[in-house]
Input
Amino acid sequence: MQKTVTPDSLARNRYAPMTLELAIHSIHDIRLASSSRLEGKILFVNPRELEAIVAESGRVRLAETAAVHPHERVRAAPVLDVVEPRAKEDPKVWAFPGWTGPPVSAGHGRTHVLRGTAVVAVGRIAGAQDAILDMGPQADPYCPFSRTHNLVLVFEAPEGLDRVAADDGIRKAILRVAEFLAGLARGLEPDRTEMWEWPPVPCQKPRTGLVYLIQSQGDLRRTYVYGQPADSLLPTLLDPLEVLDGAVVSGNFVLPANKTCTYIHQNHPLITEMFRRHSSQLDFVGVILANEMSRLEDKERSAHFVAKLARLLRIQGVVINQEGGGNTITDVMMLCRILSGLDIKVVLLVNEFAGSDGKTPSLAETTPEATAIVSAGNNDHLVTLPPTERLLGMTDFPGVEGPLSGEITVPLSRIYASTNQMGFNSLSCRSR
Amino acid sequence: MERPLRIVHYLNQFFGQIGGEDKADVGCEVRPLPVGPGLAFKQLFADRAEIVATVICGDNFIAENLEETSQAVAETVARHAPDLFLAGPAFSSGRYGMACGAVCRAVAHRLRIPVVTGMSEDNPALAIYRSHAYVAPTGKSAAKMREAAQKMVELALDLAQGRTPPEGAFYAQGIRELIRLQQTGAVRAMDMLVASVSGRPFTTELPLPTFEKVMPAPALSDLSQATIVLGTEGGITPVGNPDRIEMAMATRFGRYSLTGLESMLPERFSVAHGGYDNRDVREDPNRLVPLDVIRDLAGEGVVAAVGEFFYTTAGNATSVDNATRFGQQIAKDIRETLGDNVGVIFTST
Output
């Protein structure tokens, strides 16, 4: 017998919205100790346990573990990634699917978050561009991770280990460490619980979404979606809750200011801000994830695919972020042109290369439709930071005369996440 | 009383009273006194400043080799140790405006002194040079000379004496200045989006930049007589990167020998470039510096010869200033080493 599908039966079959519960534990201190535990607002960490976790991940070795605090005079380099400690309440579900466990969908259930902390991976990988984390008070405007309690892990790869293997080993290790640390919060009462729901209740505001650009362009410039390199990804719809729950992980080592690190994917500033505006100012209808491709033909395919998805969602306005710089501005401007041609309002979020004197044209490519741009600051701007008291990682740094512990003058692009193009920091530029 | 400020002034052949269009090809000359509009300046400066030299150059002469000639003018200007440099005013003349702008930029770069010129709003040189000079707004033609001279003199005195010129005294330079705002970029982006979809006004934080146009050199007339030089911004260097070319924001380029090589051997070359996936290039460097193919073409007589060295840098977030300097030095080096009849194949990643 043929089953009749009616609007009523469809309505009854409708899925309930997904719900993600973030159990936020506000951490006020990290201390090295003889046993790892979470007591009140203090995270105690036993470096031996971390060494064992790293050893289990294989390939790389943990040379040093340090707990550093907001605005201490500490400098760490070269930084590879920053991760927020997260663990699922259900120990059989993994916080970084595709990395610490099977690649099943994230974005639902209860996740413990150690807010105010970050795990910072430091290590030298040939071909990874060198990044500085400075915790000192003078670095505060430039270095967003000078404001968190950081567990800095200094890694060493054995002589002769392939750079891609070393990178892979370090990433697995820090994600496992991040999950182990947040796992200490299981069963403990959080400071607050955030309830995130997708899709949100529809409303009568302009239909808006995000074009979430990631950069995955070969070895050492990769971004992973559920553990898979996004190098040949066709643009896809994401549930924003899966982004907030560990679906996207960074392995991108372009200019340190240009990349989106894992912490910023986990706390996607544009997703959280769009949720905040939903129903009062706009109708948040979707997130389109797209990779910035290496070749022009692939950029075109990807941009047109994004436009199609935007059309299917009947989107009226989007924010497009950039990751990286140089060739990636082509993806940004091409998307701006194509989406504007569909009468979609487009806001771009990019950083600038305006020269150290601010006189160079900031963008390598433009399109006349790009009339709404938020600037994340000038990468070439030179910053002088006073001597530091403690140096983690390497002692010399390309482009810095003398020891890295002394007074240094470097372009912003070397300072980790300073001009981040997901809107994580507060820098900008004005014309004069 | 302080000594009068020393000023050097730049003029074209017309305002320099050499002649009209028929004299636009004359080379540069220097007079040790004010000329033409310089007399109006002299009167306005009175005893506060003195024009110690006037450089006059034909508009066509400088246009033909804008960069090189303006560098030469800057050299000449430097010899007079001025406190201030004035050019024009060019009013709405595009060719004269380009000359004034380029010379101002070269002088500012070399001497770090205030450089002042004057242009009307529609002068095409304004967009290109406004960030490199203080450009006073003027009328469209020399009929407005007196007014233009007044504005340039006031602007020049303010700058030389360390005062902030009043609003409107010069065209905004479009210099990008780093600032920290109250709100994160994400909040600002969402504010802008809400305004945009609601039809409310908003202001972009980054007005679109204008680019300097670079004219390509004319094509070679006979390839079979030409020497071909190879180069790349893809960061190929001899193994060990002997000159330590930075893999991002390069401040230098390298020139390396190809003598005795039939092709780029992967065991001889590596890559210093942090901006692209260079695995394929490390496996076969010929795909970035196509020595194998160009040797074949030389063997077949399609080209006369191959330059026995190649140029390389990492074009990864390299500043326009550095890139411009590399280009000028490489061109000069090729010209001095190989003379005429040279073609270049430079690859980009």
About this structure: Chain B has a mean pLDDT of 93. Residues 93 and 188 of chain B are 41 Å apart (CA to CA).
